[in-house]
Each structure stands twice: as structure tokens, then as C-alpha cells.
Design brief:
The protein is mostly helical. The chain has seven helices and two strands, in the order H-H-H-H-H-E-H-H-E. The longest helix is centred in the N-terminal third of the chain and has 27 residues. It starts with 5 loop residues before the first helix and ends with a strand. The mean pLDDT is 86.
């Protein structure tokens, strides 16, 4: 479309520009809500698993300290499985439920993500956390983490 001249606009020779259709804007969560849900999930899901691994699997902190890599594998494996199950069946983890957050797919229409998307998201979430790529969310206006981009998902506020 050609550039409009001021004199043409002033004299009424130019009509209004056609408005572009806006894509439906997602109601993405903010950083504080994301952080609160993460902390809640840490205490409700991660701590019981850590306790079981520390004291029942390794027999105490000393046993865990001797086998840290294996211990973290024993912690992160079940945690990932539990989170995948919560997200697949309920669409939210306990921390997300506490703050009315749901996980949606950004493919096409906003709907429940597939099991494949959830698995990819959770695996890449652990990799993102270990590589400190989660720091990216502090530079973005709304929370959309690298693992959300990879899995084509988003965390949004549940509609009331």
C-alpha cells in the first residue's frame, strides 16, 4: 500500500486503512504468578519425592551425597512422570490449580495439549532448568519459557 500524504488525508481524498485482523491474544500469566505456582509445586510434588529418595532409597543424606548424580536422576524422573500425569489428566499441577493457571496448546485453536506436547514440554523444562535458560523469563514482558516455545504450549489464566 502506498504511503499516504498529509495533504490528501486533510482534504479527505484518502479513506481509512483496512484494519488488520488481530489474532486472539492469549491471557498469558505474569512472572510472579509463575514463580508462586513453581514454589507451590516444589513443596507439594518435589519435597515428598526428595524425602523418599533421601531416606528410603539412600538411607540418609550421607548415602545421597555419595551418589548425587544417581540421586537426582531418581528425583527428577518420578517428578517428571508425576507432572506429566497431572498435566495430561487435569491440565494443571497442584501449584497451577492454586493460582488458576492452565496449560494450553498454541497450535491452531487454544485447546488441551496432546500427550506428546506435554512430554516434550516437561523433558525440556528440566533441561532448561539445568542449563539456566529459565533466566530468559526475566527479560520478557509475559511468561513464555523456552520449553513452552519448543512444545508450542502456553500457561494462561483459567477463564472464570
Amino acid at each position: 500500500m502506498a504511503k499516504q500524504r498529509f495533504r490528501d488525508v486533510k482534504q479527505g481524498k484518502v479513506t481509512q486503512l483496512p484494519k488488520k485482523e488481530k489474532k486472539e491474544e492469549l491471557n498469558l500469566i505474569n512472572k510472579t504468578t509463575y514463580f508462586k505456582a513453581f514454589i507451590t509445586d516444589s513443596f507439594m510434588l518435589l519435597m515428598p519425592i526428595m524425602y523418599i529418595v533421601f531416606y528410603f532409597v539412600f538411607g540418609g543424606r550421607e548415602g545421597f551425597a555419595a551418589n548425587k548424580a544417581l540421586g537426582w536422576l531418581y528425583i527428577l524422573g518420578p517428578l517428571t512422570i508425576v507432572e506429566i500425569l497431572f498435566l495430561y489428566f487435569k491440565g494443571q499441577t497442584p501449584g497451577m490449580k492454586a493460582y488458576d493457571i492452565i496449560l494450553i496448546s498454541t497450535k491452531g485453536e487454544n485447546k488441551k495439549p496432546t500427550l506428546g506436547q506435554i512430554i516434550i514440554r516437561q523433558i525440556f523444562a528440566k533441561i532448561t532448568f539445568l542449563l539456566f535458560l529459565w533466566v530468559i523469563i526475566f527479560f520478557m514482558k509475559r511468561v513464555r519459557t523456552p520449553h513452552d516455545f519448543i512444545a508450542q504450549t502456553a500457561l494462561v489464566y483459567a477463564k472464570k
